[in-house]
Amino acid sequence: MGSNMAECHPVAFRWVMKGKEKGGKLIHIDPRFTRTSAMADKHVAIRAGSDIAFLGGVVNWLINNPRWLNSEFHHSYVQNYTNIATLIDGDFKDTEDLDGVFSGLSEDAKSYSGKTWQYQRDASSSTAQDQIEEKNYQDMLKNRLPGVLKSDPSWQDPNSVFQILKRHYQRYTPEMVSRVCGCSEEQFLAVCEMLLQNSQRHKTSAFVYAVGWTQHTVGVQLIRIAGIVQSLLGNAGRPGGGILALRGHASIQGSTDIPTLYHSWSGYLAAKDVRRSHDTLKEYILNESHTTSFWSNTPAYTVSLLKAWFGDAATPENDFGYGALPAITGDHSILPMFVLMQLGGVKGMLCIGQNPAVGGQNAEFQRQGMEKLEWMVVRDYFETETAAFWKRPGVDPKSIQTEVFFLPAAHAAECDGTFTNTSRLLQKHDKAVDPPDDARSDLWFTWHLINRMKQAYANSTNPRDWAIQNLLWDYLDEGENRKQGWSILDEPSADRVLREINGYTWADKKQVPGFSALKDDGSTACGCWIYSGVFPAEGLNLAAARISDDYVSPGWGFAWPANRHILYTRASADPAGNPWSESKKYTYFDAAADSGTKDAEGKPVIGKWINAFGDGIDFPTAKRPDAPADPTAVGVAWQPGTAPAILRQDGKFWLFAPSGTVDGPLPTHYEPWESPVNNPLYKQQRNPVAKNWPVKGNRYHEPGVDSAAYPLIISTYRLTEHYLAGGMSRWLPWLVELMPELFVEMSPQLAAERGIVNGEVVTAYTVRGEVQGRALVTSRMKVFQIDGRTVHGIGIPWHWGYMGLAKGDVANDIVSLVADPNVTIHEGKVFSGNLRKGPRSKLAPQLFQDHVAQDTSSEITADDVRFESYLGDVENS
Amino acid sequence: MTKGMFVDTSVCIGCKACQVACKQWNELGEEPSHFEYEAGLPSKPINFTGDSYNNTGSLSAYDWREVKFIEQGSVLAGNMAWLMMSDSCKHCTHAGCLEACPTHAIVRTDLGNVIVQQDVCNGCRDCIAACPFDVISFNHQTGKVNKCTLCNDRIHNGLETACAKVCPTDSIVYGDVDALRTQAAARVQALKRQGFNKAHIYGDTDILGGLNVFYLLLDEPEVYGQPRAPQLPERNLMRNTLTSVASAIMLGVGALLAFRRRGGKKESV
Amino acid sequence: MQTQLIPEWGWWIVVYFFLGGIAGGAYFLALAVDWLRAEALQSVARAGYLIAFPLVVVCAICLIADLGRPERFTNMILNMSTLQMGNPGSLLTFKLNSPRSVGSYALVMFGLWSALSFASHHVFKRDWLRKITTSRLFLALGGFFGIFLASYTGVLLAYSHMPAWANTPFLGALFLASGASTGASSIALLLALNARPGQAPHGLHSLELVDRWAIAVEAAFLVLLFVGLGAAAAPFFRVAPALFMFGGTVLFGLLAPMLLQLRGSSDSRSMTIASATLVLIGGFALRAVVVLAPQGLM
Lengths: 877, 269, 298
What we know:
The structure holds three protein chains of three kinds. Chain A is α/β, with parallel strands linked by helices. Chain A is globular, with a radius of gyration of 27 Å. Chain B has seven helices and ten strands. In chain B, a hairpin with a 5-residue loop joins strand 4 and strand 5. Chain B starts with a strand and ends in a 6-residue tail after the last helix. Chain C is an all-alpha fold. Chains in contact: A-B, B-C. At the B-C interface, helix 2, helix 3, strand 6 and helix 7 of B face helix 1, helix 3, helix 4, helix 6 and helix 8 of C.
């Protein structure tokens, strides 16, 4: 679901086809019939944006089904590994109680407080514990241990997660699923049946998703509900189970891990934030550590990261340089950044490996924003639409003052480095040739840029420049470049970067074997704790390991963390530690094996977790399956021997999420921000806290009001033949000819209604703009019956732009700039619009001017965007 | 040892990687007709075929591979199917092009693949008319004909064909034809068990002595634009010759009779 | 959907097929006269020889010009696969199965034969040469080459997967009949043009007899062709091809000359010129439509 894997991840889809050849069943639930559907055993067409309703229906079907309730396997799995029995705060109010919203919604209805979503705890257990002297971070965490969770193993307590779940999803009946999603009840029930039958002791089902799920105003909740379904079905932490996220491009996983994100430093350590208690390192660490999960190790990872950044300058006395780091003030991700740019709040932009003039939502709005920059640097292989925004069709270059620098970038084959793929696997790629002419690698550019900054700020006495002056920046290895015969001698060494990422002891500069060796006292440095172990010894780069087998292949590359290919595999064994079945044997407890550790008395601890295929195990390998929870211990030790989810505070898979999501603890069906359909489930139409920016030039279709003018559901998507915004495909004739023109997919029924013939020029439009393309009339597109009326959808691939060999309109010109509240991902997968015969009326800049002239939207200032003040206070969770 | 390819269309996902790999290895440019320009629209390719996701429309001197997309039924009716097939030269055991070639430009190598020797071909184009599969085609830039060589240079150096190499789902498999036929037969049986009743091999020894590049199809050959019973053009040689002889006799006798009647004496004025 | 790939045989081939038919037909008729030792019809024979050789030269030029690589026309005879590429095989190419290979030899032999006949009757009138070129063996072989040249072009088309060419066995026979008809008409035209106005040249009656017979044979094969092709004849029924086929070939090439010859006075020089011209137009239209229409080039 939410993935067109065959088209967008064809190489990974190889393994799906191999599974199918072995008799595996493939279900594709998607609005369109794609090349993935063509390969599926079953395709169910559902209306774009109705996935939560569908999976909510699965949850409802499952938890009321005697075959699930009475299944020993499922009961044992759910009881032990999920929070189904845990009790939630008595003040919690569900969408059932408040007609579509949860308790905690602020008065202006723009944000939630999660106070009432918390677990009930035995208060006495925490206060009973003696407070100790805080000599180190672990002591501090120990003093802050929370009370023991309350639960009801019979699931009967009305505040138990099971009862809340049951109430929350009671509306999601098969009949309702059919009404909301536009599939038949039979199709829905057949999917439920296949899922349950294939999710047993000896079998597992996996969910695969991609941006078809994330790009929604309920994107995070969509993935959450898949997590709920998989937890209920007993598919989490088991081989052949889980939820597989297919990332949007090569190494986007890597750029999340070692992030190009504003809110994360490295390895998912949060960025310093003025809205949180982050004033000192201690406050930061106490705020960002968990007392009762693996995140109790945050102190060691944070201090080691600071040590890697500032080296000798990082000392306990100066908080390891923490104070010199800048703090974020709000949401600085790309969508609000472009809103800010449009409002004149951004001075310059470095645009590397991205083409927002094509890939941005309400793209003309974003291009107009670029006109307000003083300067812009674009690094790419070709002169992309972004680099050429100042001469795009319909504008007068003389009127644009932005100074644009276009720098040629080297390709992956022209530099050393690693890719981190969608399954967290790091694979080294070697430089094959020198890049041509002045093209240079990103590493080269970044290193030299910072190096020149260091020179420029060398003599500054301004305290804020401390971080630049003291940044450890020693990656150049000219000798190695000369030895390899490369002509570019000042190319930094990717090997050196990876060695720092792995981590090393500060005193003797020895590579650390893994993150368990990292310390919170400044004796170790580590660039990214989750990658620690990738370069565990001098000369041993595991990203370059190339030993494969026909199953897990632990000898191929390095899967972070600690070469673990499947996470939470404690759940692949039953509570007693035995494999659920021989066919699904993975991680299990061998009661006779020597764990290699010694207990407090120095006696060897017998009994050890083993992985049958050599995969890394994230569960403490010496911890017995029947080990009781220790309410006085910090970290994973606080959790019992049956807790697989070591990163969660309770060690359980969360059916109900007491924290982590800002738009509710349970996934709920809301209509997309723009939908021609009124929410059949609740009075609440949209995700109440979805991020939106009602500024001039960024208009939305309002539910009900604009449904007549914009009655169609539009989805944008990718094709196999092109790469995203086209930077790697639209300049290559071989790829261009594969898909030469922008087209609009529509059903024969819609085409007949609009008098459109296959192949002719048509225009899709919204209040934001118009996009012209060729009609591709195909019975692969379905006409939906939603809540008793006919709803048409059209699909538009978004690869084209005004540069390159194959020019075409920018499909994103019509997409709405609105976002999920958790991660600020846009909603390109579904918005409303309309379609007509013939070409567009005007070029995008002219259309945009028309729209701005008519626009009566409320005014939001640049500072509003900087500090997100218009969204109210973000809950400190 | 005869080499060939087994193309299992049941696992073809239509990614067209084979098309690109073919062009890359064989250094084929873009198909010029894909880059003809519409007046007033500089550099606008015009090969949007409207035929599902097919971009070539046919094989050509530049497109030695064509991924066909066949849409059947409809999602609305719940019987939608989208068949895909990566088509190319079949390297027939009895090859029409090879038979027709008057210059010996087209030859069969020791591995059984049929190639056009570019140094010999003089562009007479008889082979184009002779191929029952619409495979071989004329290259206007070189004045010669081109088609898939089964990656002649690769396979003679122990490598598999470029298309088979990149195929992510192993829809295209390169190998010894005998072994591939065994593999294909097993695959047909497996698919039949899964309910694909029409699954069959196209290009077993029943067709032109066996196609060295053969296919597993999920529907009738015609659905994929393939001739059900392709024939060699030779079949027309003898019967056309005989009717020509008959015609010659009729005309010859006629002429002789006409001339004999008048020939002896001066024609009357 | 299958797009048919076409050999892109265009006007060079049309002209070649047309002139080859005339050359073959005219040469055959000339040889027939000599075979019968019909002194009275020597003007017919001389005209036939006069036509055949120059036309076959033009034919060769057309055929070579049509090649994608004209400079490699010798490859039709010389086996460059052996000579240049070092493959095992003969030094000369000769493929009995390939109409063009055999046709190339036929063209060469026809050229040689017609050149000798042309020389002995027009430019190098030596008795010893005339003896050779009127010997029965020479005449028999020459007749064979003439028939071959006029008919193999049809077989060449039939050696194909294109239904409109391949689904009938009558293309060679049809082209041969057309060759005889256009050959006879060419001779008649030449004779008529050389004759004084109002005076019918010698042999015209015989030629007309031959012509009428050839037209009848051609008409018969044309009917057989369409009957046999059935649905495969569809390319001939689009607008332009239909005009060529039924306006050009059937009306101008078959019906009109037949009517003219049956009704008109055979003494009339102008009638001969008109009739012969119509036959030639018909013959050309036939080649054009048969070559071009199935390729969608018309």
